[in-house]
Design a protein that fits this description.
heterodimer, A: mainly alpha, 72% helix, B: 346 residues, mainly alpha, 13 helices, globular
Chain lengths: 305, 346
């Protein structure tokens, strides 16, 4: 009984934490280039619906994930155009992007509500999957779950060991200095936001074709905003994001497990758990982390060549 | 020299009158949305004709538009007021729900009171509830702990779940059969409406709040201090302006206005508490405030336009088989063009 509960809890934490990790990395890359994107929720929804539609028509999960990534990337370019080229306010534009994503995904997905896809297949890892409790909980998942942690490591590697990563961080800290050093902040911000959009799209696709295997309007339920909070919690460090995302995955999983067990707590109170946890985490650690933020975060680069 | 700023502030090209410019941007947004509708095999011309004729074409349609203008005015002010000092309140939706929740408590527990004191209690509690909810975010911000943008966003989800908890749980009307809702309010708890329509006294709240907002920001010492904080918070603080207190108070008053919108909705429109009491009025109010640049006259205009779009969303759902949230695209594109047009002030 306890072993079964622990297994479901752990397995659920991994599955729920995966889209959060992709989304957190998406937000982190953009913020490292100095751009806050509150529209990530909308990007995820567009990715979720694009991946689902592709899965319905092709039946091929790889094509579906690629479609979701492309859709998310292109959709985020709209945001990039407004905040980088048109120099619009990032926070307000981000929220408008969220609305746009909500509406667009609803429009695209209207004909697909209620349909089911086989989605991403579970790929048990040989031998590891046979370890009691931990094996079935950690090593019987789809490829996106396995890819999440390596992606966080890769993000760390790109940001901290490559020239492009250095340039990106320089833009986030001080775009004027980066510009003087020969790096056009706008080009790097476009690149960062396109990659962020792709990751956000994958995050959404994992929800629609990896977890739910169906499409529902606004199925992300605020996970895009939780990811924004997680970036602060992670101090803008990709490796810390791993811990944050799976901690929150654990909270979501615990809430689902308690509901499944029929614990006499209102499901609505349990549903508050991830949002409350985000607030508490930010209230406790947020203030001390302000100084870890990229220097130019949220500011608009006004300099022109 | 009539205008000493002339020549200092560079102006690019001739400046169109604000109204004409706004109309041009609106036309552009409508064109973008129309193109999208065509791509999805819908007839945009018919969609727009449906929206306009159903909202502005008949007396009933017009009154229903005013019904939607009412909460939008209040939720837009809930954003516009804190934005005077660059606070970004995205929590209008949650504050509206908490206001509705607190007003409902009064309606259910003080049902023996006569109408005027009962409605006053409901309005005060709705205001205080929404205000307190927003003030939490304000206090966290004033201490430099949590950005009010992200905290108000997250608290929206908590507020809606809290209302769901009450209508599915302790306040559920046993006579409501399968529909989760509170017991219906006594007549004394219903705000008076204009005869033959659903236009109710809440519109007066909205207009009074708007007038008060315009007066405070332009004619009082508070408005001057707000401009000082908005211009340079550090300088204002050193001059003795209590910046932290303003942060909390502005969030409280802003949240209170959204809470008042929630009170008016449960009292005049629903007559009971339901979890479906708002189709996103709080979020739409945010768009309105940013579209209007926080300007009082602009808020009225934008609230009216977006009320037409919101009402139009219901119509399109019926006549064009579009999902109800598709009009979110139109609202978003409207804000995109305004924000992209110039670095707009909220």
């Amino acid at each position: 009984m306890i072993a079964a509960f622990a297994r479901s809890l752990l397995s659920g934490a991994v599955v729920s934490g995966t889209p959060l990790l992709y989304a957190t990395l998406a937000e982190l890359i953009g913020e490292r280039a100095g751009v806050v994107n509150l529209g990530l929720e909308g990007v995820m929804l567009v990715g979720a619906v694009a991946g689902f539609v592709a899965a319905v028509h092709t039946g091929n999960a790889a094509v579906a994930v690629a479609t979701a990534a492309l859709a998310g990337g292109v959709f985020n370019l709209l945001f990039a155009y407004l905040v980088v080229t048109r120099r619009a306010n990032q926070l307000a534009t981000g929220l408008a992007l969220m609305f746009c994503g909500v509406g667009l995904s609803a429009l695209i997905g209207a004909r697909y509500v209620g349909r089911q896809v086989s989605g991403l297949a579970e790929v048990p890892i040989p031998t590891l999957a046979e370890i009691p409790v931990i094996g079935p909980a950690l090593f019987v998942h789809d490829v996106l779950v396995y890819g999440a942690v390596p992606l966080a490591v890769a993000t760390w590697w790109v940001l901290y060991t490559t020239r492009w990563g250095l340039a990106l961080r320089a833009v986030g800290e001080n775009p004027v200095a980066a510009f003087a050093a020969g790096k056009d902040p706008r080009v790097l911000q476009y690149q960062a936001l396109f990659i962020a959009g792709m990751l956000g799209g994958i995050a959404g696709a994992h929800l629609s074709i990896g977890v739910a295997r169906t499409w529902a309007e606004w199925m992300t339920a605020g996970r895009g905003f939780i990811a924004v909070a997680l970036v602060i919690f992670a101090k803008w460090q990709p490796l810390r994001a791993i811990a944050g995302a799976f901690l929150f995955g654990g909270a979501i999983s615990l809430q689902l497990q308690l509901q499944a067990l029929g614990v006499p707590i209102s499901p609505f109170v349990l549903d508050m758990l991830p949002y409350m946890l985000s607030l508490v985490v930010l209230a406790v650690w947020g203030g001390s982390r302000r100084h870890a933020a990229p220097g130019s975060l949220g500011r608009v680069f006004q300099g022109s060549p | 020299m009539a205008d000493p700023a002339r020549g200092v502030v560079a102006r690019r090209g001739p400046r169109l009158p604000t109204l004409a410019r706004f109309a041009g941007l609106l036309a552009f947004a409508l064109t973008v949305f129309a193109t999208l509708l065509v791509a999805f095999g819908k007839n945009p011309l018919r969609a727009y004709v449906d929206i306009v004729s159903s909202t502005l074409g008949t007396a009933h349609g017009f009154s229903e538009t005013l019904v939607k203008v009412t909460p939008l005015l209040l939720t837009a002010l809930a954003v516009a007021l804190p934005s005077r000092i660059w606070l970004i309140n995205v929590g209008g939706e949650g504050q509206l729900f908490i206001g509705a929740l607190c007003a409902t408590w009064a309606a259910l527990n003080l049902s023996g009171w006569p109408s005027v004191p009962l409605l006053t209690a409901m309005a005060l509690l709705g205001f205080a509830g929404g205000g307190a909810w927003a003030a939490i975010a304000g206090a966290l911000r004033a201490r430099g702990w949590v950005s009010e943008t992200i905290s108000t966003l997250l608290m929206n989800y908590v507020a809606i779940l809290l209302v769901q908890y009450f209508v599915f749980g302790p306040w559920r009307d046993p006579e409501g059969v399968n529909y989760p809702q509170s017991a219906s309010f006594v007549d004394a708890a219903i705000l008076p409406s204009l005869a033959g329509s659903r236009v109710h006294a809440g519109l007066v709240f909205g207009l009074v709040a708007l007038a008060a907002f315009a007066l405070v920001v332009t004619r009082t010492r508070w408005g001057l201090e707000l401009r000082a904080i908005g211009g340079n918070a550090e300088a204002a603080r050193r001059l003795g302006v209590p910046v932290a207190r303003y942060v909390v108070v502005l969030m409280f008053v802003g949240g209170g206005l959204a809470g008042l919108a929630g009170m008016a909705e449960v009292s005049a429109i629903q007559g009971r508490l339901r979890a479906s009491l708002s189709p996103g009025y709080g979020y739409t109010g945010f768009l309105i405030s940013w579209m209007a640049g926080g300007h009082p006259a602009g808020i009225v205009g934008a609230a009216f336009v977006l009320a037409v779009v919101t009402a139009g969303g219901d119509i399109l759902q019926m006549t064009q088989a579009l999902p109800g949230s598709a009009v979110n695209i139109l609202m978003a594109v409207m804000l995109f063009v305004v924000l992209g047009h110039k670095a707009a002030r909220p």
